[in-house]
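Tutorial, part two.
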Amino acid sequence: MDNSLPLDQWPEPIVRVQSLSESGSSAIPVKYIKPVSERPSLNPDSGTPVHDPTVMPVIDLGGLSGSTAAREATVRAISDACKEWGFFQVVNHGVRLEVMREVVEVWREFFHLPMETKQVYANSPATLEGYGSRLGVQKDAILDWGDYYFFHLLPECIRNKRMWPTLPASLRLHQHFPDLLFLFL
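Running the prediction step on this input gives:
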């Protein structure tokens, strides 16, 4: 079952990062090399990331259970991240570590499947949902070095259940993950 639009609808040929990595080549293709100014950097004194507008925001949700000022600062940080980035990473979210590890392992199984199995769920530029190697449709864009799987979980009204992989079998058990997540908290 092929749930996606044809790969030829992308502005340039799609080559999966996994395929490039397994090719044996020692050179990284130019379209994956970001200009120095856009690369993450570390503070040479502390080894910690330098505050940089090109670094994804990290929001500490622990502030939501703090004082009024802490809650307001957290809400403001979420609002700013949504306006400026459209997404963010959260810490202190309350999801148990064993749940996160299980989800990572289940998806690791998916990414270790043969390429032709994953290609059944190839994404398209129309929705970006599914298995992919690029976000966006700009020709000659500098790409991220990674394959991903993107789909909508919530709200349920936009969730495309056909895009949830049927393999590996352990992943099928997680089709109801958004509904079950709160049972694990």
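Residues 68-84 form the longest helix (17 residues). In part three we will examine how such features are distributed along the chain.
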